[in-house]
Amino acid sequence: MDEVLLAEPRGFCAGVDRAIEIVERALYKYGPPIYVRHEIVHNTYVVNDLRAKGAIFIEDLADVPPGATLVFSAHGVSKAVREEADRRGFQVYDATCPLVTKVHVEVAKLAKEGYEFIMIGHKGHPEVEGTMGQLSDGIYLVEDTADVAGVKPRGDKLAVVTQTTLSVDDAAEILAEVKRCFPNVREPKKQDICYATQNRQDAVKVMAPQVDLVIVVGSPTSSNSNRLRELAQRLGTEAYMVEGAADLKPEWFAARRRVGLTAGASAPDILVQQVIARLRELGALSIRSIEGVTESVHFPLPRGLGDRSMSEVAASRS
Ligand code: SF4
């Protein structure tokens, strides 16, 4: 292998950064344990690291003791989960990505105006459960174009929302079918697929045709990481997703001249650096970034957690 090309941008997005920082700061402020509903972000390394620092990851709020501090994951929660947390009297910090919250707010607002919804997304993904769970009924999940014909709204006011981490191309195809079946459907003013998903997919579209093989750093549960691997494959380039350097198989690189490397929005840079170091061991002679979009998105922390710099928080924990 002569060269490794790095996709730009890759790795952490603003929503993931914020979610991890919320758990770190809650650990600093209250001390362990801090309970987190669901994996804070879909990355094994991040979850294990926070677990070692005192976070306890749960799925069922019945597993959280009274009076505990609880963080909702970046994927968001349903109304029922929020109400149950209130009822049980937990101190709650909400790490839902503001771009997911934006979709929840849109659903609540339009539901009040009498709209029903088609949600384009993946069944069982926590973000989809959270968004669909903003309403008790009148929201229909479609995973592919074939599902659209099965939607039978009760009224004539119908809006469409999407999961934030879908394949941009798949979502466009499903949306076209939705519009064909329901010509008056209301679309979001700005698409729900987030800037980070869009930018990472755009970067793979630039990179994949230039390389013989694409490596995506990400965990199998990460929706946006899976979409990056699929996208490279669709563009005709062999692609693998790895949790880290240990997953790289030397035989993948035999007779490959150029390898492309990217990372999902929940994959920390330390894993990318370890993969680069391993690729050097496997024979990579040079590492080069491909020019891409520079991201400058930053989301504020919840009230009560942002009063110290992160370096102070880190210093107090070391
Ligand atoms: Fe937010 Fe997008 Fe990152 Fe998900 S991938 S946390 S929606 S910015």
Please describe the structure with a list of short key phrases separated by commas or semicolons:
flat; single chain; 4-stranded parallel sheet; 318 residues; binds iron/sulfur cluster; 12 strands; 11 helices; alpha/beta; 5-stranded parallel sheet
What do these coordinates show?
With 318 residues, the protein is of the alpha/beta class. It contains 11 helices and 12 strands. The strands form 3 sheets. A 5-stranded parallel sheet has the order 10-9-11-1-12, sandwiched between helices. Helix 9 links the parallel strand 9 (213-217) and strand 10. Helix 1 (14-30) crosses helix 11 and helix 8 (195-207) packs parallel to helix 9 (223-234). The longest helix has 17 residues, at 14-30. It is flat, with a radius of gyration of 21 Å. It starts with a strand and ends with a helix. The model has no long low-confidence stretch (mean pLDDT 96).
Give the structure's gist in a few sentences.
It is built from eleven helices and twelve strands.
Strand content: 15-25%
Helical content stands at 25-40%
Strand order of the largest sheet: 10-9-11-1-12
Taking all Cα atoms into account, the compactness measure Rg is 21 Å
Enumerate the distinct ligands: iron/sulfur cluster
Tertiary shape: flat
Low-pLDDT segments: none
Quaternary state reads single chain
Number of β-strand runs? 12
What is the string of SSEs from the N terminus onward?
A: EHEHEEHEHEHEHEHHEHEEHEH
Mean pLDDT metric: 96
Query: Which class do the helix and strand fractions yield?
Result: alpha/beta
The major sheet is characterized as: 5 strands, parallel
Instruction: Count up the helices.
Output: 11
Question: How far is it from the N-terminal to the C-terminal residue, by CA?
Answer: 40 Å
